[in-house]
Amino acid sequence: MTEENYNYDVRCHTCFKKFIVQLFESHEKNLFLVDKKDWYCDSCKRAYFKQQTEKLTKSHAEIGFTALEGTPKRISWAEKIRAELIHKVDFLKDSLRFSEEKEKETSDLAFSLFLLEWQKQTDAKWWIDNRKTTVRDISDRIKEITETIQ
Ligand SMILES: [Zn+2]
Description:
Layout: E1 7-11, E2 18-22, H1 27-36, H2 42-61, H3 72-95, H4 101-119, H5 124-129, H6 135-149
Antiparallel strand pairs: 1-2
Helix pairs in contact: 2-3, 4-6
The structure holds zinc ion.
């Protein structure tokens, strides 16, 4: 079997340009995939990711986060991570209940200080290195900050 056996002609879902993909399932399954799947050529894929990244960068700018530094690929990944981590912070904040107004004020301040720490991290690599940060990790750091302001 030559390598050409794995090559299939598909059409980009966005720009309708034809391009070749390699598929390694059975011929029948490959034909099914060629027909059913939405295919995107490399340049449309790149444009799509760039657009998604720009959207995230913009929404992060609105909440005080500056643009990230790094290679386009790293920035694209880091923006996704940053969105997920900020989401975890929001989730944690929403899950907290307070019996006293004073407690809530202290907590809000701790969250603001916490976000300030993250807002200083403008290197895409930092976000990638910290992608495994859990809600628990965030909660622990918030507690530490809360202790310093009480
Ligand atoms: Zn295309």
